[in-house]
Write a sequence for this structure.
């Protein structure tokens, strides 16, 4: 491994792991009504796209965008699969650790199978990919809404230093692997791995452990709403990265994406307030 590649992998590991862990902590301490939106913000994709541009060049995004958007759809399916499978495994009355392990392994196998299919098909039609993503996102949101349980806002949990380090190592490893794959194999596969549900994985496992199966759907119900900001980031990267470079492109895409997230958060809050004010019949 060359010195420059080692630097890129280590940088992705450290910076991505730290920032994504920070966002996970914010998500865990947020009110139930908005926690899912924070969990779905474009944190992993920010770092993966930055390092993709660094490793493979700023013009690679037009090529990998359709695959990346489809991979984003598979991440939403991972979320829906985890919630649904957790409820199925709960009926078996297994110990919580075994229930969590089976749920995660099953859900990540579904994500991996879909990711492999997407990569093998080498899909290049961006409008169709956006259409598939839109339908998938709406379907997952309806699923989560249908099975969400009404529950009070979750209490703040204090995590140990060991737990924080494990989260950082997990997410950092995913990002470092993406950089290595991009350089050693292909940017195409790097684009697929860029949508690995790292934040979803960490957050779902922690939520599952501390809040149980019944509280999962309510906690992540708004994740599909926040996930639109990730799609916006990907599309902005296609437009701005080739014209402005990866540094300015990242800043521009971040601003647009977070403005989108803020708007979504505001709309979601207004809708939540509106639903609370409706009389019960």
């Amino acid at each position: 491994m060359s010195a420059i590649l080692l630097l890129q992998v280590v940088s992705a590991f450290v910076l991505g792991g730290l920032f994504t862990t920070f966002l996970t902590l914010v998500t865990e301490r947020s009110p139930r009504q908005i926690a899912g939106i924070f969990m779905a913000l474009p944190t992993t994709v920010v770092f993966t796209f930055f390092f993709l541009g660094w490793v493979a060049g700023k013009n690679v995004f037009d090529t990998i965008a359709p695959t990346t958007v489809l991979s984003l759809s598979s991440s939403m399916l991972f979320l829906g699969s985890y919630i649904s499978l957790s409820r199925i495994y709960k009926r078996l009355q297994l110990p919580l650790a075994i229930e969590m392990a089976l749920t995660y392994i099953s859900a990540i196998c579904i994500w991996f199978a879909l990711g492999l299919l997407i990569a093998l098909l080498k899909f290049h039609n961006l409008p169709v990919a956006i259409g598939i993503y839109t339908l998938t996102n709406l379907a997952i949101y309806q699923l989560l809404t249908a099975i969400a349980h009404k529950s009070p806002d979750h209490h703040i949990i204090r995590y140990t230093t060991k737990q924080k380090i494990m989260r950082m190592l997990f997410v950092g490893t995913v990002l470092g692997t993406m950089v290595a794959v991009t350089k050693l194999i292909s940017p195409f596969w790097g684009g697929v791995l860029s949508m690995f549900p790292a934040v979803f994985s960490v957050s779902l496992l922690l939520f599952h452990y501390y809040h149980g199966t019944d509280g999962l759907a309510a906690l992540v119900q708004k994740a599909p709403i926040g996930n639109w900001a990730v799609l916006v980031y990907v599309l902005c990267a296609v437009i701005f990265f080739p014209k402005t470079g990866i540094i300015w492109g990242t800043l521009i895409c971040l601003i647009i994406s977070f403005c989108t997230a803020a708007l979504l958060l505001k709309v979601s809050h207004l809708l939540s307030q509106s639903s609370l004010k409706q009389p019960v019949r």
Remarks:
- The mean pLDDT is 76.
